Amino acid sequence: MRATTIGMPEAPTAPGLDRLTTILLLAFVGAVQLSIAAAQILLGVLLLCWIAGMVRDKSRPGAPTFFVALLAYAGITLISSIFSISPLESFIDDRQLLLFLIVPAVYDLARGHRASTATDVIVTVGGAAAAYGIVQYGMLHFDSLGQRPHGTLGHYMTYSGTLMLVIGVAAARLVFGTRDRVWPALVMPALVVALSLTLTRSAWVGACVAVGVLFILKDLRLLGLLPVVAALVFSLAPDSVTNRMVSMFDLRDPSNRDRLAMARTGSAMVRDYPLTGVGPAMIPKLYAQYRDPDAVQALNPHLHNVPLQIAAERGVPALAIWIAFIVVLIYGLFRVFRSERDQTLAAAGLAAIFGMLSAGLFEYNFGDSEFLMLFLVLVTLPFAAARRDDAAASTRA
After folding, report:
1. Rounded Cα gap, residues 54 and 165, in angstroms
2. Which residues pair with 147 in a beta bridge?
3. Which of 183, 193, 209, 38 is nearest to 131 (CA)?
4. DSSP string, 278-336
5. Which end of the chain is more exposed for a tag (fewer CB within 10 A), N or C?
6. What angle do CA 8, 10, 13 make, to 5 degrees?
7. CB–CB of 95/110 below 8 Å?
8. What are the φ and ψ backbone dihedral angles of 175, each rounded to 5 degrees?
9. 8 Å CB contact between 85 and 344
10. pTM of this structure
11. Residue 178 DSSP symbol
């Protein structure tokens, strides 16, 4: 058993059920970028079939080691909900913790070549979603800050976040892939253009960091390509995009001022509720009470910063556990990256983490269900793919 995984060996499932769960898995990873309702329905059916297979085969689920930290984070979230200013509302919001079951499910069901097939689906659906976003911008007048491209998803932040993750996957295929590079190369321009047109600066930063991490892993000299690509995008982009890029460095920009004010607001909440936070989903209820005098918006649903949001909602101990989850996850992926002949999936997982972390300094992406589902899939797939070696070792024994 690998040091990066936990679990028990399982008996093979019945071929019919195995085939069904594979189809459901691929449908789920594709639906995440298209419809939250469809993705959640498919995930529910997938989990039921996965559990049915384990019951039938009298097997136990496995999971990568980082899942232990993720469970600890779920546990401390529930404790925070007990001490919330409105426990019932917090517990209702905690239903998102069920998404963590994606990790053991993908780990069991996406073993070996299925993991690569799942990334094929993710890149293909991402390309289609990007094309639709470009159509929204060019033909349906989704071309301003008030109305931005959002694909088939409900919000441009969610759409841009998923595009950011798919860019990391496609770039990993281009940088580390030994075959099947043509399709990611064809899809990448659409992904970059669509992400640019969302005018979402946090996702821009995340995508640049994700690609930068891939370049560092491959060859540090490749970092020289990033400013070239940025200059090319800047020179070819419409005024709405270039103006938005320039605004990133303008402290007088209203959204920049509001984010600084949110940081002070969240810090005040942490000082008053350091151990358990104000409770999940309670930030909007207390925002007016703690609102910084320099804030632009009268109300914000969250603090647009992942670490600060976790500390304010769930307490400093929860933030410490979340950081531990990230550290264990990065360590595990680096081990897979160094041990596997095909480094593509592990590189894509690392790109997803660093993209999420950098974009998460300006947006609470870890709390976005669609983003979280795709993120958990991407960081679990490398561990699932590596299980082919475990199976081979068991056979030899």
Report:
1. 31
2. 144
3. 193
4. S-TT-HHHHHHHH--TT-SSS--SS-S-HHHHHHHHH-HHHHHHHHHHHHHHHHHHHHH
5. C
6. 155
7. no
8. -80, -40
9. no
10. 0.92
11. S
